Backbone:
């Protein structure tokens, strides 16, 4: 990268600013510099550069950011079309600062890679110093980090304009960043970019609100009437019970008070029943809405486009749990039961074969809960016996030969305020089971070599592919620990028993970097394959296809031979046999499946394969 700032001058300016000297830099940039020096203890003389996460980590980040990716993609493409060939790259980072999507000029590929402006780069301010994504995440505000505003001198040729994207509940979902590799010296050159980016984020949030709140009234808001219909400044969603259910971030600023969950009439000086009057059908001119806090806004109400949500008795699932399946009845039941306990002190055991998504579900439960601490996963079978104790419980300074002089926090401590996921709990040794029991019973950890216990607040989700009750009976698992862990048992079905196979394949395909798609014959082969239990096999196939196809749709020939051949296998029951089972059982799917000698999901899949049923039914 050319145009780098002189290191000495740069470092000096940062240190002076961190000491509180006045500066002509923007206040948000100065605040970030100060955080970097005083809180994160970063050294401006060192080249920090973004870490590039592993492929596995990237897949995980993309899966967790599914809603963000879906929400932002259209807006990103639209924006990129306007700045194409102008030396820009558009990045989408999740709330942890990891780039989960990027659109850039293919001709600049080498330069972009060199600068780390690619998917999988991690831009948290704590690691990389002041940068667009990191500073935007830290402040929650739109920002331009222009050239020498960057903390790391090697980033100073760049100009990065980053805007926050919020979900409909007001939580920061991620950051959209437009970076220029060789921006002009003058920061004012980027003023327009900042405004364009803000408007792009606003429209993304607006589209997301409309898409996620089809059953609610949408109220578009603007301080003046001219833009109300074409580009409203903000919007809120109002549910059938008259309470505000969602908003775009600007609504919060426009109305200047908390909105989510509040009755409409508490925020505005109008009754919920008045909303139809503000709808376009009844009011050819925009309505004037008075706020309870004083002041007025122009408003246009759009009626619901879908029937009301949550019929009596149905559980409203939080988004992360909603995203663990695509209509499989057993998974739906699992998600509903899980949703009921996410914020309770009930221990959960996830039971299922290896690779069925136990950790994936545990993460979704953590994300659905109110716990703000981290999710820490421990594979009890993979930790080396000699290390397991110090890894779990930590140790005090110089606790044993080779120990770190400053001591170390254990994994249990790291999960404080969050969720501890204990995978393969059945493989834990009996002595360690005893120590874990103490942590769970007393809510405190005793580090190795220590004499003072430290309090911890953790929620435990454990997983096992073994039968823990049988292990208790044979004496290899402590009964008292079993009772502590065994609150709610959730059985995770293997892939072969899932009725949402097509959804699962599409979801995993969409999470590949190339976002692969399948031609109809390839899709048919994939659906006809008898998958084993492990989701990882689908991941492997999708990644292989992504590598082989380089962006074009996947053909049957691109699939591994055993899958490409699947459609010709004669293992299927004939259409006649399937229909006969159904007829004998008067259309009762479960009974027909029993009659055919298979489980319900397999029977259902066979019906689908034989073209006798739409996969979305049933
Ligand atoms: N519903 C899903 N959608 C997309 N990917 C999934 C889903 N469920 C699981 N996966 C992916 O499948 C892989 C295996 O899942 P996970 O590690 O959660 O399984 P596990 O049951 O905990 O495995 P193990 O028993 O080996 O620890 C992971 O990469 C995970 O991200």
Residues:
């Amino acid at each position: 990268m050319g145009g780098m700032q002189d290191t000495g001058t740069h470092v000096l300016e940062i240190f002076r600013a961190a000491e509180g000297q006045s500066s002509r830099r923007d206040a948000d940039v100065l605040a970030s510099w100060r955080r970097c020096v005083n809180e994160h203890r970063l050294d401006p003389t060192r080249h920090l550069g973004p870490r590039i996460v592993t492929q596995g980590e990237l897949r995980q980040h993309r899966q967790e950011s599914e809603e963000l990716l879906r929400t932002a993609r259209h807006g990103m493409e639209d924006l990129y079309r306007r700045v194409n060939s102008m030396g820009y790259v558009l990045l989408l980072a999740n709330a942890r600062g990891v780039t989960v999507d990027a659109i850039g000029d293919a001709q600049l590929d080498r330069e972009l890679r060199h600068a780390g402006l690619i998917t999988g780069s991690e831009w948290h301010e704590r690691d990389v110093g002041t940068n667009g994504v990191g500073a935007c995440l830290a402040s929650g505000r739109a920002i331009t980090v222009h050239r020498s505003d960057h903390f790391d001198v090697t980033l100073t040729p760049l100009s990065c304009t980053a805007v926050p994207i919020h979900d409909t509940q007001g939580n920061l979902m991620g950051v959209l960043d437009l970076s220029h590799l060789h921006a002009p010296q003058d920061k004012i050159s980027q003023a327009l970019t900042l405004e364009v980016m803000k408007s792009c984020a606003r429209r993304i949030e607006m589209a997301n609100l409309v898409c996620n709140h089809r059953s609610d009234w949408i109220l578009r808001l603007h301080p003046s009437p001219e833009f109300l219909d074409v580009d409203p400044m903000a919007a809120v969603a109002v549910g059938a019970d008259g309470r505000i259910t969602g908003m775009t971030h600007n609504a919060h600023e426009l109305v200047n008070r908390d909105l989510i969950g509040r009755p409409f009439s508490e925020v505005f000086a109008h009754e919920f029943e008045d909303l139809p009057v503000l709808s376009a059908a009844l009011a050819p001119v925009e309505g004037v809405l008075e706020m309870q806090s004083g002041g007025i806004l122009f408003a246009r109400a759009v009626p619901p486009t879908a029937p009301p949500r949550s019929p009596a008795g149905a559980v409203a699932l939080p988004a992360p749990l909603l995203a663990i399946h695509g209509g499989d009845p057993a998974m739906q039941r699992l998600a509903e039961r899980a949703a009921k306990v996410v914020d309770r002190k009930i221990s959960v055991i996830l039971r299922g074969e290896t690779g069925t998504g136990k950790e994936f579900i545990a993460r979704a439960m953590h994300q659905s809960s109110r716990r703000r601490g981290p999710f820490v996963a421990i594979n009890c079978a993979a930790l080396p016996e000699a290390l397991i104790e110090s890894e779990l419980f930590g140790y005090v300074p110089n606790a044993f030969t080779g120990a770190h002089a400053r001591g170390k926090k254990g994994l249990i401590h790291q999960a404080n305020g969050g969720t501890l996921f204990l995978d393969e709990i059945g493989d834990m040794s009996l002595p360690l089971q005893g120590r874990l029991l103490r942590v769970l019973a007393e809510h405190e950890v005793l580090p190795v070599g220590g004499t003072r216990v430290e309090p911890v607040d953790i929620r435990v989700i454990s997983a096992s592919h073994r039968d823990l009750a049988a292990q208790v009976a044979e004496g290899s698992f402590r009964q008292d620990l079993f009772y502590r862990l065994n609150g709610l048992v959730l059985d995770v079905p293997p892939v072969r028993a899932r009725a949402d196979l097509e959804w699962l394949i599409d979801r995993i395909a969409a999470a590949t970097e190339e976002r692969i798609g399948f031609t109809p014959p390839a899709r048919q082969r994939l659906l006809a394959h008898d998958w084993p239990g492990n989701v990882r096999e689908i991941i492997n196939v999708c990644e292989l296809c992504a590598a082989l196809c380089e962006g074009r749709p996947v053909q049957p020939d691109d699939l591994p031979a055993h899958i490409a051949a699947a459609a010709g296998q004669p293992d299927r029951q004939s259409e006649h046999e399937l229909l006969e089972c159904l007829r004998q059982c008067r259309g009762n799917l479960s009974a027909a499946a029993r009659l055919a000698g298979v489980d319900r999901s397999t029977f259902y899949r066979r019906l689908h394969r034989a073209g006798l049923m739409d996969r979305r039914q049933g």
